[in-house]
User: What shape does this take?
Amino acid sequence: MSFIVGIDKGTTATKAVVFEAATGKVVGSANRATHALHPRSGWHEEDMEVTFGRVADCIRAAIADAGLTGEDISGVGVSGHMGGLWALDADGHPAGHAIAWPDARAGEIVAGWTRDGKTDEIYEISGNAPIPGVPLALLAWLKANEPDRYATLNRIAFAKDYINYRLTGRFVTDESDISFCPCDIRKRAFSQRLFEIAGIPEVADKLPDVLPTGSLVGEVTTEAAALTGLKPGTPVVTGAGDAVSAALGAGAVLPGQAVTVIGTSFMNNLTTDRPVMEPAGVGFLFLMPDGAWQKLMANTGGGSLCLDWALRAFDQDRLTAAGEDRGDFFATMEAEAANVPPLANGVFTHPYFNTSGMSAPRFIPEARASIFGFDTATGSAQMVRSVMEGVALSMVDCYAALDGSVDEIRLTGGGARSRLWAKICAAAMNRPLGLLEAEETGALGVAVLASVATGQHPDLATATRAMVRLADNVEPDADLATIYADAYPLFRDLGRDLEPLWRKRADILSQQGKRQETP
Assistant: This one.
């Protein structure tokens, strides 16, 4: 029997899962927290050496959990959060800390592009509205603010590419990861024009080779084998960016199939047979395997990230007391929220807690979370329910704006483990949602790719049918659907009314920052 290791290097945690190659059955897993660094407000970095150490530890632990050894593993696939900046110097060492996609330092640069009309051209080429954490913006920021460090950048890629580099010694990327704004989305290749728009044309000489998603990168080196427990020579495939790998792991490989991921961010992904550019300037467009595309309407402001905030703000004592094993705490919290009436006694939450703001259904990097209807009766249970409902109503927002037919939606991500949250999403959308048997769809998606690349399955369609299975369907509750249908216009209109106020807030903070910088 053959086994595949799928690795999902996430923003908050890394998961390694061992799957049966023939069936996709999980036989072992492990996870390790991502060690994020925040040297300044709004900055989000990682020490690349520490990150790989935790990934390696995670791989070793997952293989042990499966009761296997490295000899049993026939292939490895890696998924990673997209965007950000992972760079090497001329000696092949990390060129400073990695910058992850939630980083906000380049917010003013992106705002300037919008004012100058550059955002429109960026979107027309790439199909992506830039956020501060994309490589174009971060590289432009480094050139303007840290020219010495910028000069040390010799090779540039993305999170999963650095993991693959440490596993194989080869620094390459794939189509899915280049999608996130330095790519000509129609030509499926890097775009020199995008680097010229950003004022960094010289970066084009530092880009890695681009392989088709799911291609073999290389083999596990002796050094990497000693750290991970894998066998030297084990094949490693490119894997994919997290949005694409999650869609593959959910089985959303045909046009019209969609997957909603309640992860750190909240992603609504539709597989298409063409580059969907509408609504203009909104959302993301990524390259899928086999010549397909994925239109992603994301509330990058937060999915489970919003819930984490609510628990820290309103239930810190119980959260701390739960320690690392929080299963019982989350079950109690969910039961309490389920007993709160729909709409949480009139509390509406716009779930834009992350510094990246709103990327869909409108592109507003300045957007931030708001709580409407808050009063003295609002406690932790009401806030938990309101956050869940706010995320679900943002799902309605995103799918309503899509220029494409949505035939079915599958629900996954850590938040999908909450039956209450899944029920709220199904009612808000007023349609059934398929729940997947495998919880870690990002890891499964790259395991599917690895199973094909190593000859376990003949093609992606066959591998998906064999390895991806639905566990259940969540049907919409008719009464709850009526409540959310009545409430949605208020949620939508509040967001539109807040739009100029979000921008005014950003202007005030910008002016304050400039005054503080003045000697």
User: Anything to note?
Assistant: The chain has a mean pLDDT of 93. The chain has 18 helices and 25 strands. The longest helix spans residues 478-517.
